[in-house]
Amino acid sequence: MGLTYFYRDLSTLKLVVDKTIQHYNDSGSINIWDAGCSRGAEPYTLAIILREKLGKTAFGNVKIHATDLDPTGEFESIISNGIYPAEEIQRVPVDIQKKYFEDQGSTYLICDEIKESITFKRHNLLTLKPIKTGFNLVLCKNVLLHFNASQRRDVLTMFHESLLDKGLFAIEQTQSIPSLLAHLFMKITAQTQIFQKK
Ligand SMILES: C[S@@+](CC[C@H](N)C(=O)[O-])C[C@H]1O[C@@H](n2cnc3c(N)ncnc32)[C@H](O)[C@@H]1O
Questions:
Q1: Between the CA of residue 23 and those of 15, 57, 186, what are the distances in Å?
Q2: Ligand 1 pocket mutation, candidates 143, 146, 148, criterion most atoms within 8 A of CB
Q3: Domain extents for the chain?
Q4: What pLDDT does residue 27 have?
Q5: pLDDT by 10-residue block (mean), the chain, 198 residues
């Protein structure tokens, strides 16, 4: 199981949410693919940031499609139950904990509004078949490092195909777009690896 916790790399997630909201521009649903979402901390963090920025009504248009190889077959029930141990949410500010989580003692339960924005599907990125197309944002953090250079190029090309025109793509700081694929993505932020589909 990958290392994961709520509010990991918060500055990148906040920035990518800001850029996605600018790109979305009130045109229907905001469709996000969180590829390699592990146990759900990352898609739930994204959902909370989006709910805080958009408010209740516009947040109703957010659909986060979370996927993972899910080697143990446990992620679907963890994510749909939305119950996490206190250690995984310790970086979440107390006011946000109070707003979106029910304190159950040693565990915390995420509220229905946030849970309903997320669907989980078991999916192997190396099949090179996107779960669907038309995404405003694809996020794939701390996953590509598991692949060789050729697999990385193939998976990045699949992400490009899954995005809407000018859709956004984000990876972790230590990854980059290989030069062979420079024609597919344009970097749009200086300090983070956030790209726009060319
Ligand atoms: C370190 S976790 C990253 C979790 C989250 N994205 C983050 O950055 O906090 C890496 C995840 O990649 C998933 N993964 C590895 N190979 C994969 C593949 N071929 N297809 C889909 N997911 C994969 C693992 O199951 C694991 O949950």
A1: 12, 18, 14
A2: 143
A3: 10-197
A4: 63
A5: 82 96 79 98 98 96 97 96 96 98 96 98 98 97 97 98 96 96 96 96
**Residue 23: per-residue pLDDT:** 79
What is the CATH number that goes with domain 10-197?
A: 3.40.50.150
Which residue has 């996020």 as its token pair?
139
Amino acid in the structure at residue 22: Q
Query: Tokens in use for 90?
Result: 């310790």
Residue from 38, 127, 171 whose mutation best tests the ligand 1 pocket (most atoms within 8 A of CB): 38
Contact residues of ligand 1, CB 6 A cut-off: 2-4, 8, 36-38, 42, 68-69, 71, 124-126, 141-143, 146
Report d(CA 180, CA 67) in Å as an integer: 26
